Amino acid sequence: MSEANLLLSHNEGVATLTINRPTKLNALNKETLDELGDRLQELREDPAVRAIIITGNGEKAFVAGADISQFPTMDRRSGQALARHGQAIFNKIEQMPKPVIAAVNGFALGGGCELAMACHFRIASQKALFGQPEINLGIIPGYGGTQRLPRLIGKEKALYLLLTGDHLTAEDALKAGLVDRVVPAEELMNSAGALAAKLAAKAPLAVGYILQAVYQGADRELDEALDLEADLFGDSFDTEDMKEGTTAFLEKRKPQFKGK
Ligand code: COA
Q: Annotated catalytic, 187?
Protein backbone atom coordinates (compact mmCIF):
# COMPACT_ATOMS: atom_id res chain seq x y z
CA MET A 1 0.00 0.00 0.00
CA SER A 2 1.20 3.54 -0.73
CA GLU A 3 -0.13 6.85 0.62
CA ALA A 4 -0.39 8.33 -2.85
CA ASN A 5 -3.30 9.35 -5.05
CA LEU A 6 -3.69 5.71 -5.85
CA LEU A 7 -3.66 2.76 -3.47
CA LEU A 8 -2.65 -0.68 -4.64
CA SER A 9 -3.27 -3.95 -2.83
CA HIS A 10 -2.83 -7.58 -3.82
CA ASN A 11 -4.77 -10.66 -2.83
CA GLU A 12 -4.08 -14.03 -4.44
CA GLY A 13 -3.74 -12.94 -8.05
CA VAL A 14 -6.19 -10.05 -7.75
CA ALA A 15 -4.83 -6.49 -7.66
CA THR A 16 -7.08 -3.70 -6.41
CA LEU A 17 -6.38 -0.13 -7.49
CA THR A 18 -8.19 2.46 -5.37
CA ILE A 19 -8.37 6.09 -6.52
CA ASN A 20 -7.55 7.96 -3.32
CA ARG A 21 -8.59 11.63 -3.35
CA PRO A 22 -11.82 11.29 -1.35
CA THR A 23 -11.91 14.96 -0.31
CA LYS A 24 -12.07 15.84 -4.04
CA LEU A 25 -14.46 12.98 -4.75
CA ASN A 26 -11.53 11.15 -6.37
CA ALA A 27 -11.36 13.63 -9.26
CA LEU A 28 -8.58 12.65 -11.62
CA ASN A 29 -5.86 15.30 -11.61
CA LYS A 30 -2.79 14.88 -13.79
CA GLU A 31 -0.72 13.15 -11.08
CA THR A 32 -3.46 10.61 -10.38
CA LEU A 33 -3.96 9.91 -14.07
CA ASP A 34 -0.20 9.45 -14.55
CA GLU A 35 0.03 7.15 -11.54
CA LEU A 36 -2.88 5.15 -12.91
CA GLY A 37 -1.05 4.74 -16.22
CA ASP A 38 2.16 3.63 -14.47
CA ARG A 39 0.44 1.15 -12.15
CA LEU A 40 -1.56 -0.35 -15.03
CA GLN A 41 1.63 -0.96 -16.99
CA GLU A 42 3.21 -2.70 -13.97
CA LEU A 43 0.11 -4.83 -13.40
CA ARG A 44 0.06 -5.78 -17.08
CA GLU A 45 3.65 -7.01 -16.86
CA ASP A 46 3.28 -8.82 -13.51
CA PRO A 47 2.50 -12.50 -14.19
CA ALA A 48 1.28 -12.93 -10.61
CA VAL A 49 -1.61 -10.54 -11.32
CA ARG A 50 -4.48 -12.26 -13.08
CA ALA A 51 -7.38 -9.85 -12.53
CA ILE A 52 -7.71 -6.20 -11.54
CA ILE A 53 -10.37 -4.27 -9.64
CA ILE A 54 -10.60 -0.48 -9.88
CA THR A 55 -12.60 1.41 -7.24
CA GLY A 56 -12.74 4.74 -5.45
CA ASN A 57 -11.91 5.55 -1.83
CA GLY A 58 -14.59 6.86 0.53
CA GLU A 59 -18.35 6.56 0.82
CA LYS A 60 -19.30 9.03 -1.85
CA ALA A 61 -17.44 8.70 -5.11
CA PHE A 62 -15.93 6.26 -7.55
CA VAL A 63 -14.48 9.18 -9.56
CA ALA A 64 -16.33 12.50 -9.98
CA GLY A 65 -14.51 13.25 -13.22
CA ALA A 66 -11.37 14.89 -14.44
CA ASP A 67 -10.14 17.56 -12.03
CA ILE A 68 -12.02 20.68 -13.13
CA SER A 69 -9.57 23.00 -11.35
CA GLN A 70 -7.05 22.43 -14.16
CA PHE A 71 -9.48 23.51 -16.91
CA PRO A 72 -9.91 27.33 -16.76
CA THR A 73 -6.35 28.10 -17.94
CA MET A 74 -6.33 25.47 -20.66
CA ASP A 75 -6.73 26.07 -24.39
CA ARG A 76 -7.42 24.08 -27.56
CA ARG A 77 -3.96 22.55 -27.76
CA SER A 78 -3.69 21.56 -24.08
CA GLY A 79 -7.28 20.29 -24.17
CA GLN A 80 -6.52 18.03 -27.09
CA ALA A 81 -3.31 16.81 -25.42
CA LEU A 82 -5.17 16.04 -22.19
CA ALA A 83 -7.82 14.07 -24.06
CA ARG A 84 -5.18 12.05 -25.92
CA HIS A 85 -3.34 11.36 -22.65
CA GLY A 86 -6.48 10.22 -20.82
CA GLN A 87 -7.64 8.18 -23.80
CA ALA A 88 -4.27 6.41 -24.00
CA ILE A 89 -4.45 5.45 -20.32
CA PHE A 90 -8.05 4.25 -20.54
CA ASN A 91 -7.16 2.29 -23.70
CA LYS A 92 -4.54 0.54 -21.59
CA ILE A 93 -7.37 -0.70 -19.40
CA GLU A 94 -9.49 -1.89 -22.32
CA GLN A 95 -6.47 -3.55 -23.94
CA MET A 96 -5.33 -5.20 -20.70
CA PRO A 97 -4.91 -8.95 -21.34
CA LYS A 98 -6.38 -9.62 -17.88
CA PRO A 99 -9.94 -8.85 -16.79
CA VAL A 100 -10.47 -5.40 -15.27
CA ILE A 101 -13.55 -4.88 -13.08
CA ALA A 102 -14.87 -1.46 -12.09
CA ALA A 103 -16.37 -1.60 -8.59
CA VAL A 104 -18.42 1.59 -8.78
CA ASN A 105 -19.04 2.76 -5.21
CA GLY A 106 -20.55 6.22 -5.81
CA PHE A 107 -20.43 9.10 -8.29
CA ALA A 108 -19.07 7.93 -11.64
CA LEU A 109 -19.26 11.20 -13.53
CA GLY A 110 -17.37 12.46 -16.55
CA GLY A 111 -13.94 10.80 -16.48
CA GLY A 112 -15.31 8.47 -13.77
CA CYS A 113 -18.01 7.13 -16.05
CA GLU A 114 -15.40 6.92 -18.82
CA LEU A 115 -13.03 5.03 -16.52
CA ALA A 116 -15.77 2.54 -15.63
CA MET A 117 -16.67 2.12 -19.31
CA ALA A 118 -13.07 1.31 -20.23
CA CYS A 119 -13.17 -1.62 -17.78
CA HIS A 120 -14.32 -5.05 -18.97
CA PHE A 121 -16.95 -5.40 -16.23
CA ARG A 122 -18.90 -2.86 -14.16
CA ILE A 123 -20.42 -3.78 -10.82
CA ALA A 124 -22.27 -0.90 -9.17
CA SER A 125 -23.31 -0.20 -5.61
CA GLN A 126 -26.98 0.77 -5.26
CA LYS A 127 -25.61 4.22 -4.33
CA ALA A 128 -23.70 4.69 -7.60
CA LEU A 129 -24.65 7.48 -9.99
CA PHE A 130 -23.46 7.68 -13.57
CA GLY A 131 -23.31 10.58 -16.00
CA GLN A 132 -21.37 12.67 -18.47
CA PRO A 133 -22.01 16.20 -17.12
CA GLU A 134 -19.28 17.88 -19.19
CA ILE A 135 -21.96 19.72 -21.19
CA ASN A 136 -22.71 21.72 -18.04
CA LEU A 137 -19.12 23.00 -18.10
CA GLY A 138 -19.31 23.98 -21.75
CA ILE A 139 -17.08 21.10 -22.85
CA ILE A 140 -17.49 17.53 -24.09
CA PRO A 141 -16.20 14.23 -22.72
CA GLY A 142 -12.58 13.64 -23.74
CA TYR A 143 -11.61 10.27 -22.28
CA GLY A 144 -13.77 8.14 -24.59
CA GLY A 145 -17.25 9.07 -23.36
CA THR A 146 -18.70 10.10 -26.72
CA GLN A 147 -17.57 6.77 -28.18
CA ARG A 148 -17.87 4.10 -25.49
CA LEU A 149 -21.23 5.29 -24.12
CA PRO A 150 -23.13 4.91 -27.45
CA ARG A 151 -21.39 1.59 -28.06
CA LEU A 152 -22.58 0.34 -24.66
CA ILE A 153 -26.12 1.71 -24.43
CA GLY A 154 -27.01 2.82 -27.97
CA LYS A 155 -26.80 6.16 -29.70
CA GLU A 156 -30.09 7.67 -28.55
CA LYS A 157 -29.77 6.93 -24.83
CA ALA A 158 -26.12 8.02 -24.98
CA LEU A 159 -26.99 11.28 -26.70
CA TYR A 160 -29.60 11.99 -24.05
CA LEU A 161 -27.05 11.59 -21.25
CA LEU A 162 -24.32 13.47 -23.14
CA LEU A 163 -26.55 16.40 -24.09
CA THR A 164 -28.49 16.78 -20.82
CA GLY A 165 -25.68 15.89 -18.40
CA ASP A 166 -28.33 14.11 -16.32
CA HIS A 167 -27.31 11.46 -13.79
CA LEU A 168 -28.40 7.84 -14.11
CA THR A 169 -29.09 5.77 -10.99
CA ALA A 170 -27.44 2.36 -10.66
CA GLU A 171 -30.75 0.61 -11.37
CA ASP A 172 -31.33 2.72 -14.50
CA ALA A 173 -27.71 2.10 -15.55
CA LEU A 174 -28.41 -1.64 -15.21
CA LYS A 175 -31.55 -1.35 -17.35
CA ALA A 176 -29.64 0.67 -19.96
CA GLY A 177 -26.84 -1.92 -20.11
CA LEU A 178 -24.22 0.43 -18.69
CA VAL A 179 -23.50 -1.84 -15.72
CA ASP A 180 -23.52 -5.62 -15.41
CA ARG A 181 -24.75 -5.93 -11.83
CA VAL A 182 -26.07 -3.77 -8.97
CA VAL A 183 -25.45 -4.81 -5.36
CA PRO A 184 -25.95 -3.25 -1.91
CA ALA A 185 -23.07 -0.89 -1.07
CA GLU A 186 -21.73 -3.16 1.68
CA GLU A 187 -21.50 -6.11 -0.75
CA LEU A 188 -19.74 -4.25 -3.54
CA MET A 189 -16.13 -5.24 -2.87
CA ASN A 190 -17.04 -8.85 -2.02
CA SER A 191 -19.01 -9.11 -5.23
CA ALA A 192 -16.18 -7.62 -7.33
CA GLY A 193 -13.65 -9.77 -5.43
CA ALA A 194 -15.61 -12.97 -6.07
CA LEU A 195 -15.81 -12.27 -9.81
CA ALA A 196 -12.12 -11.33 -9.92
CA ALA A 197 -11.13 -14.52 -8.05
CA LYS A 198 -13.23 -16.65 -10.40
CA LEU A 199 -11.58 -15.08 -13.46
CA ALA A 200 -8.11 -15.23 -11.87
CA ALA A 201 -8.43 -19.02 -11.60
CA LYS A 202 -8.86 -19.44 -15.37
CA ALA A 203 -6.01 -20.04 -17.84
CA PRO A 204 -4.41 -16.56 -18.06
CA LEU A 205 -3.24 -16.75 -21.67
CA ALA A 206 -6.65 -17.97 -22.89
CA VAL A 207 -8.30 -15.20 -20.88
CA GLY A 208 -6.08 -12.68 -22.68
CA TYR A 209 -6.87 -14.23 -26.07
CA ILE A 210 -10.62 -14.02 -25.41
CA LEU A 211 -10.35 -10.35 -24.40
CA GLN A 212 -8.29 -9.65 -27.52
CA ALA A 213 -10.67 -11.58 -29.81
CA VAL A 214 -13.77 -9.85 -28.47
CA TYR A 215 -12.40 -6.30 -28.36
CA GLN A 216 -10.32 -6.33 -31.56
CA GLY A 217 -12.89 -8.43 -33.42
CA ALA A 218 -15.69 -5.96 -32.66
CA ASP A 219 -14.02 -3.35 -34.90
CA ARG A 220 -13.48 -5.72 -37.85
CA GLU A 221 -15.57 -7.27 -40.63
CA LEU A 222 -16.80 -10.74 -39.65
CA ASP A 223 -14.41 -12.57 -42.02
CA GLU A 224 -11.41 -10.72 -40.64
CA ALA A 225 -12.65 -11.14 -37.08
CA LEU A 226 -12.98 -14.89 -37.60
CA ASP A 227 -9.40 -14.97 -38.93
CA LEU A 228 -8.35 -13.30 -35.68
CA GLU A 229 -10.29 -15.92 -33.70
CA ALA A 230 -8.68 -18.78 -35.64
CA ASP A 231 -5.20 -17.32 -35.01
CA LEU A 232 -5.84 -16.93 -31.31
CA PHE A 233 -7.48 -20.38 -31.12
CA GLY A 234 -4.24 -21.71 -32.62
CA ASP A 235 -2.15 -19.75 -30.13
CA SER A 236 -4.12 -21.28 -27.27
CA PHE A 237 -3.07 -24.75 -28.50
CA ASP A 238 0.53 -23.68 -28.17
CA THR A 239 0.29 -23.31 -24.38
CA GLU A 240 1.16 -25.55 -21.46
CA ASP A 241 -2.18 -24.54 -19.96
CA MET A 242 -3.99 -26.20 -22.89
CA LYS A 243 -2.21 -29.46 -22.07
CA GLU A 244 -2.98 -29.03 -18.37
CA GLY A 245 -6.65 -28.10 -18.97
CA THR A 246 -7.41 -30.93 -21.35
CA THR A 247 -5.42 -33.53 -19.37
CA ALA A 248 -7.06 -32.47 -16.11
CA PHE A 249 -10.48 -32.88 -17.74
CA LEU A 250 -9.62 -36.39 -18.91
CA GLU A 251 -8.13 -37.27 -15.51
CA LYS A 252 -11.23 -35.86 -13.78
CA ARG A 253 -9.27 -33.37 -11.66
CA LYS A 254 -9.13 -29.59 -11.28
CA PRO A 255 -6.61 -27.90 -13.62
CA GLN A 256 -3.70 -25.87 -12.24
CA PHE A 257 -3.09 -23.14 -14.78
CA LYS A 258 0.31 -21.44 -14.85
CA GLY A 259 -0.07 -18.81 -17.56
CA LYS A 260 2.41 -20.62 -19.80
N1 COA B 1 -12.90 18.24 -10.17
C2 COA B 1 -12.37 18.91 -9.14
N3 COA B 1 -12.92 18.93 -7.91
C4 COA B 1 -14.05 18.25 -7.74
C5 COA B 1 -14.67 17.53 -8.77
C6 COA B 1 -14.03 17.55 -10.04
N7 COA B 1 -14.52 16.86 -11.08
N8 COA B 1 -15.80 16.96 -8.29
C9 COA B 1 -15.87 17.31 -7.00
N10 COA B 1 -14.83 18.08 -6.65
C11 COA B 1 -14.52 18.65 -5.36
C12 COA B 1 -15.38 19.87 -5.05
O13 COA B 1 -14.86 21.02 -5.66
C14 COA B 1 -15.31 19.90 -3.55
O15 COA B 1 -14.06 20.42 -3.18
P16 COA B 1 -13.95 21.48 -1.93
O17 COA B 1 -14.47 20.72 -0.75
O18 COA B 1 -12.50 21.79 -1.87
O19 COA B 1 -14.82 22.63 -2.31
C20 COA B 1 -15.29 18.42 -3.16
O21 COA B 1 -14.85 17.73 -4.32
C22 COA B 1 -16.65 17.90 -2.79
O23 COA B 1 -17.55 18.16 -3.84
P24 COA B 1 -18.95 18.91 -3.64
O25 COA B 1 -19.34 19.51 -4.95
O26 COA B 1 -18.90 19.83 -2.47
O27 COA B 1 -19.90 17.68 -3.28
P28 COA B 1 -21.48 17.58 -3.52
O29 COA B 1 -21.91 16.35 -2.82
O30 COA B 1 -22.16 18.86 -3.20
O31 COA B 1 -21.64 17.35 -5.11
C32 COA B 1 -21.11 16.33 -7.22
C33 COA B 1 -21.15 16.18 -5.70
C34 COA B 1 -20.40 15.10 -7.80
C35 COA B 1 -22.53 16.41 -7.81
C36 COA B 1 -20.32 17.62 -7.59
O37 COA B 1 -19.09 17.61 -6.91
C38 COA B 1 -20.02 17.76 -9.06
O39 COA B 1 -20.88 18.10 -9.85
N40 COA B 1 -18.74 17.50 -9.46
C41 COA B 1 -18.31 17.70 -10.82
C42 COA B 1 -18.78 16.58 -11.72
C43 COA B 1 -18.33 16.84 -13.15
O44 COA B 1 -18.72 17.80 -13.76
N45 COA B 1 -17.50 15.94 -13.67
C46 COA B 1 -16.99 16.03 -15.00
C47 COA B 1 -15.71 16.77 -15.01
S48 COA B 1 -15.03 16.88 -16.63
A: no
